[in-house]
Q: What sequence folds into this?
């Protein structure tokens, strides 16, 4: 468990460089995290992001990795027979968004 905590701390320390090196402007992260500008910069300076905010930042800065995880999950669903018929899916979407 200590290993995971140390790994998390290292990730949090890298947040400023991840944001700086990303293709997005700082305003994008402020908007996505729903923070005020001053709060964002304070958290960035102090490495004081919440776990949920760190998760969002990692997802935003690593979209390819998230896509790979989604493909792996889809392959697992196919292997384990968790499939839905196209018509069933379309009907659920109609009900959900009608």
A:
């Amino acid at each position: 468990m200590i290993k995971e905590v140390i790994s998390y701390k290292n990730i949090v320390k890298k947040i400023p460089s991840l944001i700086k090196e990303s293709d997005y402007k700082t305003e994008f992260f402020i908007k996505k995290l729903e923070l005020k500008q001053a709060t964002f910069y304070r958290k960035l300076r102090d490495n004081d992001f919440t776990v949920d905010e760190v998760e969002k930042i990692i997802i935003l800065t690593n979209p390819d990795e998230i896509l790979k995880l989604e493909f792996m999950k889809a392959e697992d669903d196919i292997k384990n027979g968790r499939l839905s018929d196209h018509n069933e899916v379309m009907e659920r979407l109609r009900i959900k968004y009608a």
The CA atoms of residues 30 and 36 lie 7 Å apart. Residues 2-21 form the longest helix (20 residues). The mean pLDDT is 92.
